[in-house]
Automatic annotation (TrEMBL):
Protein's name in the database: LysR family transcriptional regulator
SUPFAM superfamilies per the UniProt record, alphabetical: Periplasmic binding protein-like II (SSF53850), Winged helix' DNA-binding domain (SSF46785)
Species of provenance: Amycolatopsis taiwanensis
GO molecular function, one term: DNA binding
Assigned protein family: Belongs to the LysR transcriptional regulatory family.
PROSITE patterns membership: HTH_LYSR (PS50931)
Regions that span the bilayer: none
Statement: the UniProt record of this protein carries the keyword Transcription regulation: yes
Amino acid sequence: MKRAVTRLANLDLNLLVILRELIRERNVTRAAERVGVTQPAASAALSRLRRHFGDELLVRGKGTYLLSPLATQLAEQVEVVCAAAERLFAAAEVFDPKGSRREFTLLVADYTIAVLGEHLGRLVDERAPGVGLHLRLVREAMATHIDENIRLMDGMISPPVGRFRTPDMRSAELFRDRWVCVVSGDNGLLGTDRPSLDDLARLSWVAPYHPDQGSTVAPIPRQLTIFGIRPNVAVRVESYQAVPHLVAGTDRIALLQERLARQVADRLGLKVLECPGNPEPIVEMLWWHANFDDDPGHVWLRDLLQEAARSLPAIA
């Protein structure tokens, strides 16, 4: 333990910030501007980082820099560590949103941003103009290890999943939604405006977060398993917002959250149809680690998220 503490004390933790910006920008000059140092200082920091890791980190390509495999691996870690450090040093007995420069990090799906983002962004702008939001798109690997990752960020917005229910996890409901089917307005293979389970089984699908095999953790594969359907998946995509664009003008079908479907249906010429079977309700919840229970800034954030959720229009 003593050796580990000594190693940490000997590290220049400013290099973490430089490393984060170098990985984000893939450009020494822009990274220097973001950190507020000179270009030679950023170059010197990159040299120190290369010596420390024994790796080039930024590799010159055709007219630009590319991340080395190690830098790609470090990208996720440095974001999490920097966010945790910023939170640590922003901690205080009181929280003044008007004067705070704190940045809050939330792990969310792009669906959540589409539905809640405008309301949340407006409230933050009005109440805390200096406060930053870092909305990170959820990935399966991060969600799988959420019990570890949740300590290093302010929270995650997600439907309830069994593995999230641990003694150190807290949660609060934000809003509800429901599953609907979306098809193109000129779909030639669906002869009715009320698809049956047989229709769902025979049509081609656009499926977000559809696994290579077997898993029913993601919401839509779970619903299809409940329906007893093994879908003919024509397009897999790691995004909810992309789904309606990949259905439009085709004979494909998809399940989608109604709030998102209604936002884009008219613009893309889609029909929003009742979902057959008995789909589970969608319950979007905020999850956070118990360590943040009494953090005044975090309490403010939780209240603000609840207020943003209450401003959402009701669904049918």
